[in-house]
Amino acid sequence: MESAASILDGMRAAIPQGRVKLDQSEVRLLSELTARLVAARPDALAEYQRFQAIRERGICLPRDATTQWLVGRTVLVTGGTGCIGSMLMEQLAALGPGRLVSVSRGTVQPWRLPPGAEYREADIRDRTAISELFAELKPDLVFHVAAQREPGRAEVEVHRTVTTNIFGTRNLLDAAAEHGVQHVVCASTGKALRPYSPDIYAESKRIAEWLMARAAAGSQLLITAARFTHVVDNSIIADRLRNWCKAGVIRLHSAEIDFYAQSALESAQLLLASGLSPRRGVVRMHALRNLDWPVNLLDLAIGMIVETRSSSPIYIAGYESGYEPEAFPGLYDPRTAGCLSPLINAFEAASVVPGDCTDTDAFELRAPSDDAAALEALAVLEETCEKSEDSADLRGPFEALSLALLDSTLRDVPKPALQRSIQLATARGAASRAHDRLLDALRRWAA
User: Fold this and answer.
1) Which of 207-211, 223-227, 330-334 has the weakest average pLDDT?
2) What value does the mean pLDDT take over residues 202-206?
3) Alpha carbons within 13 A on the beta-carbon side of 166
4) Exposed, middle or buried, 421 (CB in 10 Å: 0-12/13-18/19+)?
5) Cβ of 264: how many Cβ atoms within 10 Å?
6) Which numeric CATH code is attached to 1-319+337-367?
7) Distances (CA, A) of 7 to 32, 57, 297
8) Cα(39)–Cα(147) distance, rounded to whole angstroms?
9) Strand 258-259 to strand 295-296: parallel, antiparallel, or no bridges (unpaired)?
10) Confidence of residue 108 (pLDDT cuts 50, 70, 90)
């Protein structure tokens, strides 16, 4: 029987990457090769089923401590009508808050509707509206989940992504500090573990983490946070594959992609767990410790083809803007990576602290000792956003902020850690211009 590897080689040779459209003869050829590929990977259906089963996973949450923290309090959730936000609202409602309110942009229906929950409409980008809402509700506790979450869309809708993920987060934190909120719990992403990224979504969330650290250092506000990886319940990848299986061509970035996944339930419970051990002056950032084996994208696609009995062909299309083909080689240190969540990088590993939940890892995210240049760049980006919504106008100021924040971050990393990262990256070789830029910055600060 021919191997899957040889069939994939034939696919790549037949139709090069980067094609926007395929003609009928190319589709017929890929359909034939895809049928052979499905036969060559009989275990793919089991991998697809494992991916779907992740929806049922949860974590061991300290119930008594969580209830004691939340009972009787006024709790506000931003983005409470989305997938994770709806699950969080359901989990919160069961813990006896005095008042539970969701605020979301638009009139999106919640995935779940827990009894007693209230739903308000406001955009976190509207500083005045958010401040007025805080003044009215006087929340004790805020969960900030609202965000623009799609990497591909972020590259097209730069203005919306920047104003939501960066300035919307700042609005929320400012309102919380102004109106006497005791504690804010923020949702972040594993993509933010990169000290630098040219991708709009990943870097916008990295900048948001910096703003959290600044807010924690500059006020009495307690801030904790959680990093998520791919959430199965609202999987962008699965939605795309499902639509392509109905009609069209299944366009994969690569056949060699493996990615971690978690459930919406785990995500909501992780946010709750992250709130149990705050420390004033720093952000305690949490992530799931055990994410099980990564899911293989090709097997996921083949498994869905088998389950849906689809005749759609697979095309290895190459990476879209907004998606990084390979992690920076110096981001993880093999000496520590196997013991910690894969959503914590080698620089952050030195700040790991024990958490209240045995299923999570946590580290302390501190504000940079000198971020004046980053603050100046942030002001320029905000001014540009006020003048223009054109993505071309925003990319330059956004990149300037990204690089200024990179310098602010690396300035505080101990030199042995920088040198170790350089050693690991040099041994593998930089894979992209972004990796070259990060390696140059590491060398500059190590020197």
Assistant:
1) 330-334
2) 97
3) 25
4) buried
5) 26
6) 3.40.50.720
7) 10, 35, 16
8) 41
9) antiparallel
10) low
H or E segment and range at residue 177: helix 169-178
Which band of pLDDT confidence, cut at 50, 70 and 90, is reported for residue 336?
confident
pLDDT digits (tens, 9 = 90+) for 13-54: 999 998 889 999 999 999 999 999 999 999 999 999 999 999
DSSP sequence for 260-293: -EE-HHHHHHHHHHHTTS--TTSEEEEEES---S
Scored b (16 or more CB within 10 A) or e, 73-94 reads bbbbbbbbbbbbbbbbbbbbbe
Please give the Cα distance from 78 to 142 (Å, whole number). Answer: 8
Which position has the token pair 């009894």?
115
Residue 268 backbone class (left: φ over 0; alpha: ψ -120 to 50; beta: rest): alpha
Percentage above 70 pLDDT, the chain: 98
Provide the sign of the torsion angle of the four alpha carbons 264, 269, 272, 274, taken in this order. negative
Contact 191, 201 (CB under 8 A): yes
Q: Is pTM, for the whole model, over 0.85? A: yes
- For the chain, the structural domain boundaries read 1-319+337-367
| Dist. CA 238–CA 257, nearest whole Å | 14
Amino acid at 400: A
How would residue 188 be classed by pLDDT, with cut points 50, 70 and 90?
very high
Average pLDDT rounded to a whole number, residues 155-179: 97
The DSSP code for 350 is T
Distance, C-alpha 126 to centroid of its chain = 23
State residue 59's pLDDT score: 94
Q: Which residues contact 161 (CB under 8 A, 6 or more apart)?
A: 148, 153, 154, 200, 201, 204
Q: Are 345 and 332 in contact (CB under 8 A)?
A: yes
